[in-house]
Amino acid sequence: MTAEECLATHRRGEPLADLDLAWIDLVGADLAGADLHDTTLTAAHMEEANLDGANLDACFAAEVYLTGATLNGARAEQAFFQRAWLEGASFRESDLEGADFGGARMQNADLSGCKLANASFLDADLSQARLVGVDLRDGNLRGANLAGADFTAADLTGCDLRKVDVKGAIFDRAITDGVLFYGNPPWGGGASHQDWKADLPHYQDE
User: Fold this and answer.
1) First to last CA, the chain
2) Which of 111, 113, 187, 190 is least buried, going by the fewest C-beta atoms within 10 A?
């Protein structure tokens, strides 16, 4: 399917689900509310696209280019965004539970208010990202760059924060029960976290 056919299909109100749109050029496209569930978007160029309210559940979007795109209020449960280009993208109030952002470039992205339970950001770059009020319970952020990221009022219960860079990150009012973190945690007093020294022998080879 060409980009023109894709946009015409969307304008007719028809779904774009379960299609192969790898490498398609949809830069700046208006796909607000589009149904793209289970669609392949590998390496698609969608910079500055409008995907507000879109359904991206279970889509395969490895290495997709979504720099500066808006996906506010979107759904992308169990979606695959490994190594995606998401710098400055906005996902505000989106449902991203179980999504995989491993190795993604997400500098200055806005994920405020997102549902991110069981999501993975393994080795992702979230420097200067906004994650205010997110639900990131049991998330995996191991090895991520969180320098300058804002986790104000975030629920990080059970998160894996091993080997992360948290220089300048904000954790005001964050819930950090059961967080796995090596070293002295950057959040304030009263927060509980797993005993990293006791856990070290178990995790040292991981």
Assistant:
1) 43
2) 190
Q: Are 138 and 159 in contact (CB under 8 A)?
A: yes
C-alpha distances out from residue 141 to 15, 148, 154, 159, 172, Å? 33, 15, 14, 7, 18
- Report pLDDT digits (tens) over 109-157: 999 999 999 999 999 999 999 999 999 999 999 999 999 999 999 999 9
Strand, coil or helix: what is 198? helix
Number of H helices, E strands in the chain: 2, 0
Helix (H, G, I), strand (E, B) or coil at 98: coil
Tokens 């894996």 belong to residue: 160
Predicted TM-score of the model (pTM): 0.89
Instruction: Please report the DSSP string for 63-120 in residue order.
Output: T-B-TT-B-TT-B-TT-B-TT-B-TT-B-TT-B-TT-B-TT-B-TT-B-TT-B-TT-B
Q: Mind listing the pLDDT tens digit for each residue in 148-191? A: 999 999 999 999 998 888 899 999 999 988 888 877 777 765 44
Decide: residue 111, CB within 10 A, 0-12 exposed, 13-18 middle, 19+ buried: buried
Instruction: Extract the tokens encoding 9.
Output: 């299909």
- Residue environment code for 128-143, b if the CB has 16+ CB neighbours within 10 A, otherwise e: bbbbbbbbbbebbbbb
CA torsion sign for 120, 139, 135, 181 is: negative
Pair 71, 50: CB distance under 8 Å: no
Residue given tokens 């997709």 in the structure block: 64
Q: 58 by DSSP, 3-state: which?
A: coil
